[in-house]
Amino acid sequence: MAKENILVIGANGQIGSVLVTYLRDIYGENQVVAADLRQPESETGIFVLLDATDAQALARTVRRYGITQIYHLAAILSANGEKEPLKTWDINMKTYFNVLEVARESGIQKIFYPSSIAVFGGNITGVAPQEAALNPSTVYGISKVAGENWSQYYFNRYGLDIRSLRYPGIISHQSMPGGGTTDYAVDIYHQAVKGEDFTCFLESETRLPMIYMDDAIQATVNLMEADAGRLTVRNSYNLAAMSFSPKEITRNIQEYIPDFKVSYQPDFRQEIANSWPDNLDDSPARTDWGWRASYDLDKTTREMIGALRKKYQLIKG
Ligand code: NAD
Ligand code: AKB
Asked: Which of these, 56, 173, 196, 238, is most buried using a 10 Å CB contact count?
């Protein structure tokens, strides 16, 4: 494997904190530079305090570490984004333009851009096809559609090798989600394992596409390592793993924790969830680079409950 120097921006977030460890296992501890606005809770490898809206600071980091690939994870997510729409647009777009421009100017070979199911809007009912009219309802979704279009533009115009996934909601035990609409599907496991009741901010029947963190990381790395000639989608690949409602995940958890109780108090996030599809058709990802999910809801629940039981026992003990 060619020697890569990888920069992960937004490295302290739900995905970044898991992805950095995984990339360091593959490419080597000193080959992966973690960068974020905030200091990490514990520093294990190279970390740079970086505001990616600052183009010069980003360029300095790229030069200093001889960066060859960027995973650009920094963004404001759907629910937090609705609280400050203009700031969200500004941060999500400015950071991505800075990444695109530093890549173009410094000859960076590859970029990973995470998109989202939030690119779809209420015009899609049921399963979202790869090719669809994208009418997002949130400022976050609008910024992701714009990001996808700019990815396609920089690929067509400058040959920049940008790869992207439309992630479903990600479920992880290692890290907490950062202000999205799918966050309930992580929070619910924590409450269940702590032996507490859970109040869900979505209605019981609202089905959304979700994915377990291990699958999301595997998909990301597989896409980044795929032969460029096989990639037919240059805006963003649909990615699917499972789809469930709060009622269905509750029933699944109750198979392991029978006393677990959930009540429903939908808030502004319900409208966001209503505008998203139930699931995605990910046939191009399957055909082009062999994508297959390994975790369904039951396997996810087993892993989450097992890992969180250990975590909370450790905290107690
Ligand atoms: P997160 O909110 O948990 O983490 C984002 C990180 O970016 C945070 O640590 C934050 O401090 C950092 N950040 C914010 N502004 C920054 C800036 N200006 N400069 C440097 N760092 C900055 O997000 P996440 O869940 O890890 O998501 C990562 C990416 O994946 C995002 O682009 C998100 O839109 C996308 N995505 C996530 C999910 C999911 O369910 N987690 C689903 C679809 C898409
Ligand atoms: C959110 O809910 O905003 C994210 C996402 C699906 O993009 N988890």
From this structure: 238
